[in-house]
UniProtKB/TrEMBL annotation:
GO terms for molecular function: magnesium ion binding; pyruvate dehydrogenase (acetyl-transferring) activity. Component of the pyruvate dehydrogenase (PDH) complex, that catalyzes the overall conversion of pyruvate to acetyl-CoA and CO(2). Residues 150-310 form the Transketolase N-terminal domain. Mg(2+) binds at residues 243, 273, 275. Signal peptide: none annotated. It holds the Pfam family Transketolase_C_1. The keyword Nucleotide-binding does not apply. It catalyses: N(6)-[(R)-lipoyl]-L-lysyl-[protein] + pyruvate + H(+) = N(6)-[(R)-S(8)-acetyldihydrolipoyl]-L-lysyl-[protein] + CO2. This is Pyruvate dehydrogenase E1 component. Residues 493-716 form the Pyruvate dehydrogenase E1 component middle domain. The gene is aceE. PANTHER family: PYRUVATE DEHYDROGENASE E1 COMPONENT. Residues 1-22 are annotated as: Disordered. It is an enzyme of class 1 (oxidoreductase).
């Protein structure tokens, strides 16, 4: 594989072996050359494949060809006829590049200075425009629209095109990166659907998210097709990426999924400008060769677009392969330097490496040498690659396109290490750029205000604009464009939630199992059930979801072509092309990518899906927080189930499995609503309310994710109380168990698995100390805090109005005495509501690293168990003079509070 060692660029086919008969070798090569001359590359390819196959059958050790010469994959004789008017497209492509750069430049004027990126789109304009004019299908196309992941730093180019199309005005263009100060005429920095919900579809600028999400979008398209929900056979996914971005583990980490699923509806276009943000991607190596090897090894079809058409005649004359040898051995750092110099420099330092290659360009001027383009700037080469990618079947395709970052922007920008951070053009830069692009703007116009050079748009009657708009009409309308028009979703009625309200009777069940039982009933609903997409990493049995395997089945486009080892079991592992479960393996980031594709299907495809992602809670927001942010930017809807939650509940697993902080991490995402339910009936009401918010007719904020913390500790699940405070469950707190005795008053607040400890503490306080304590189930500390902060904000901005009382303050208004709050999380979780509670407030929490032990011992160690709640309550009451001053010390001794082996809160029960 070609990486830093540029001499090993051809997969080690010959460079490790001696040539014992050069004359015979020359004859074989001459025969191949004659075959190519007489019958073309297609026939030669077949013969070579046949020879390789025969060599393998005869045990001749031929290594896999992972890299090829540093030339175009598609030979000249196989290039298709370009179908468009290249000169017309070239003219308005120049206008696009001008307007994109000027938009960013104008955003740097005094008093604004909001930044932006000029060079990425300048170098990638051809890659996008070939697609816009000939391949990218809009949403009005008969086969449905394509999904296109635009490279985040190239967003100015998409705005520039929308400006020529009449979708954006000059005022809009001048609102670039000023989303509030120019509200109504503002453009987001990058592709942000939440900021521009009618324009962008896919957020991509957090490097590595685009590739992974694109793969799962392509899989989701096939999932919809195979399950009979929508015909997506003509829809294609395009992902535009940078070669520097491909260093992100996420960018390469799921390539095998696309190959395994044969996602030939997916094309990656990697803009190989050889530069990352600070310098070369591989200064001493060759990133295109490295990526070719990597993608080919992962099972992808690879197309390299290295050189423009001006090189064709030189390569044809290169009879001895010396030019190709120089191309192969020249490192990327040198290629970058060449484009920052001039034609004479290239003549001396590139072609001058051998007499033969120097002679090849002897008749070319320095200017003609300078005009030898890289392949990613050649319309016909790029068109040929895109057409070949669309026609290739059985594998996903990656197109590696060689470009120059900052192409056409002048010597201060082209190929410079600092070009990514350069945002302004000098007056001389502007004039040179205008001349290069042939923009009809005068020196006087540029000199009038160098901070505000004019945009250029000849108007809708110009023949170029008519052509541009006609191309888009034929391809199905605007790109990018986001639409939210989906089929109505029939939501389940009350009957589907009966199992949640019924309780578990004599059987014990953890809240994970309570949720799974509810999910199973929801999936049985004839209209709604098929819309649920269960997403599970490799832990279905841990979560008690193996019962789904035989009926819902696991999605696999190839089906199950092996004899299952557990085929005779009731809960046998079953795969099917029509399977409903997306089983991603040990792959949380891929799970969120699958969640995003399903959770945005209502907009992408007009087909609502309800993703339900069940995962080890520690590996959710901590491991994949960036992907969850992207999901909410894309306005995904669905349920994330943080299973095996809590710092002490998952016994035996130890530090990296002990989650005491997920609710805090989740609280940082404004579109995530986190609940910590104690009982199945609470889960039922939360899920029902979540579905109503996402798809109910009266919802004002449907673009949310409901995150439920559920546990693997079995308890007796009670029936739903007769007079249940459903509003309290949804808003975050309700009175679960009022005190049954008179005495000094206290309030015990708990959530999730801690609620039984609070009930136990209530009993101990009453029986041992005569204390009257109410128990409150806090279903969402996070939502209570958000409500409280919103009330404060309203009061701040409306000083003359009667302030709204936060919900938690309302609920606790009549509750007297000190409050003790305990959870299976760090103190910061319940502390979220401290400022909204007038009572004296104490928090117990698991604020250290987790560890492996029994539940009771771990809870006693952290002092969050029932007896710790009792002692903390007595301490607060003693300070108030409401119990004997010696009660706390007596209680510590009585319950042996400092002995971890004396804890009793919790049991040793099961996985789910």
């Amino acid at each position: 594989m070609a990486a830093e060692d540029t001499t090993d660029i051809l997969s080690g086919l010959t460079n490790q072996l001696p040539d014992r008969d050069p004359e015979e070798t020359a004859e074989w090569i001459e025969s191949l050359d004659e075959l190519i001359r007489s019958q073309g590359t297609e026939r030669a390819q077949y013969i070579m494949r046949s020879l390789l196959q025969r060599a393998g059958s005869q045990s001749v050790g031929v290594p896999m060809v992972t890299t090829t010469d540093y030339v175009n994959t598609i030979p000249v004789d196989q290039e298709p006829e370009f179908p468009g008017d290249e000169e017309t497209e070239r003219r308005y492509r120049a206008w696009l590049r001008w307007n994109a750069a000027i938009m960013v430049h104008r955003a740097q004027r005094p008093g604004i200075g909001v930044g932006g990126h000029i060079s990425t789109y300048a170098g990638a304009a051809t890659l996008y425009e070939v697609g816009m004019n000939h391949f990218f299908r809009g949403k009005d196309h008969p086969g449905g629209g394509d999904q296109i992941y635009f490279q985040g730093h190239a967003s100015p180019g998409m705005y520039a095109r929308a400006f020529l199309e009449g979708r954006l005005s000059e005022e809009d263009m001048d609102g670039f990166r000023q989303e509030k100060s120019r509200e109504g005429h503002a453009l987001s920095s990058y592709p942000h659907p939440r900021s521009m919900p009618d324009f962008w579809e896919f957020p991509t600028v957090s490097m590595g998210i685009g590739p992974m999400n694109a793969i799962y979008q392509a899989q989701s398209n096939r999932y919809l097709q195979n399950r009979g929900l929508k015909d997506t056979s003509e829809q294609h996914v395009w992902a535009f990426l940078g070669d520097g971005e491909m260093d992100e583990p996420e960018s390469r980490g799921l390539l095998q999924l696309a190959a395994n699923d044969k996602l030939d509806n997916l094309t990656f276009v990697v803009n190989c400008n050889l530069q990352r943000l600070d310098g070369p991607v591989r200064g001493n190596g060759k990133i295109m060769q490295e990526l070719e090897a990597f993608f080919r090894g992962a099972g992808w079809n690879v197309i390299k677009v290295v050189w423009g058409r001006e090189w064709d005649s030189l390569l044809e004359k290169d009879k001895d392969g010396e030019l190709v040898d120089i191309m192969n051995s020249t490192p990327d750092g040198d290629y970058q330097t060449y484009k920052a110099e001039n034609g004479g420099f290239v003549r001396d330092h590139f072609f001058g490496k051998s007499p033969a290659t120097k002679e090849l360009v002897a008749n070319l001027t320095d200017e003609e040498i300078w005009q030898l383009k890289r392949g990613g700037h050649d319309y016909r080469k790029v068109y040929a690659a895109y057409k070949a990618a669309m026609e290739f079947k059985g594998k996903p395709t990656v197109i590696l396109a060689h470009t120059v970052k900052g192409y056409g922007l002048g010597t201060h920008f082209e190929g410079r290490n600092a070009t990514h951070q350069m945002k302004k053009l000098t007056l001389d830069d502007l004039k040179a750029f205008r001349d290069h692009l042939r923009i009809p703007i005068s020196d006087e116009q540029l000199e009038a205000d160098p901070y505000k050079p004019p945009y250029f748009n000849p108007g809708p009657d110009a023949p170029e604009i008519k052509y541009l708009l006609e191309r888009r009409r034929e391809l199905g309308g605007n790109v990018p464009e986001r639409r939210v028009k989906h089929k109505p979703l029939h939501l389940p009625d009350e009957k589907a939630y009966e199992v949640a309200n019924r309780g578990s009777g004599k059987q014990m069940a953890a809240t994970t199992m309570a949720f799974v039982r509810l999910l199973k009933d929801l999936m049985r609903d004839k209209e709604f059930g098929k819309r649920i997409v269960p997403i599970i990493p490799d832990e279905a049995r841990t979560f008690g979801m193996d019962s789904f395997f035989p009926t819902a089945k696991i999605y696999n486009p190839k089906g199950q072509n092996y004899l299952s080892v557990d085929r005779d079991l009731v809960l046998a592992y079953k795969e099917s092309p029509q399977g409903q479960i997306v089983h991603v393996g040990i792959n949380e980031a891929g799970s969120i990518a699958a969640f995003t594709a399903a959770g945005t299907s209502y907009a992408t495809h007009g087909e609502p899906l309800i993703p339900v992602y069940v995962f080890y809670s520690m590996f959710g927001f901590q491991r994949t927080g960036d992907y969850i942010w992207a999901a909410t930017d894309q306005m995904a809807r669905g349920f994330m189930i943080s299973a095996t939650a809590g710092r002490t509940t998952l016994t035996g697993e130890g530090l990296q499995h002990a989650d005491g902080h997920s609710p805090i991490l989740a609280s940082t995402n404004p579109a995530v609503k986190t609940y910590d339910p104690a009982y199945g009936y609470e889960i039922g009401h939360i899920v029902r309310h979540g579905l109503e918010q996402m798809y109910g007719p009266d919802s004002k904020d449907p673009n949310v994710i409901y995150n439920l913390m559920v546990y693997n500790e079995p308890i007796h699940q009670p029936k739903a109380p007769e007079e249940l405070d459903v509003e309290g469950i949804i808003k975050g707190i309700y009175l679960l168990a009022p005190a049954k005795i008179d005495g000094p008053r206290a309030q015990l607040l708990a959530s999730g698995v801690a609620v039984p400890w609070a009930l136990e503490a209530q009993k101990i306080l009453a029986e041992d100390w005569g204390v009257s304590a109410d128990v409150w189930s806090v279903t969402s500390w996070n939502e209570l805090r958000r409500d409280g902060l919103a009330a404060e904000e309203e009061a701040f901005l409306n000083p003359d109005a009667e302030p709204r009382v936060p919900f938690v303050t309302q609920q606790l208004a009549g509750a007297t005495g000190p409050i003790v709050a305990s959870t299976d999380y760090m103190k910061a979780v319940p502390d979220q509501i401290r400022q909204f509670v007038p009572n004296e407030f104490a928090t117990l929490g698991a604020d250290d690293f987790g560890f492996a032990d029994t539940r009771a011992a771990a809870r006693r160690y952290f002092k969050i168990d029932s007896h710790s709640m009792v002692v903390r309550t007595l301490e607060m009451l003693a300070r108030r003079g409401e119990v004997d001053a010696g009660a706390p010390a007596e209680a510590i001794k009585k319950y042996d509070l400092l002995n971890v082996n004396a804890g009793t809160s919790g049991n040793a029960g099961g996985d789910a």
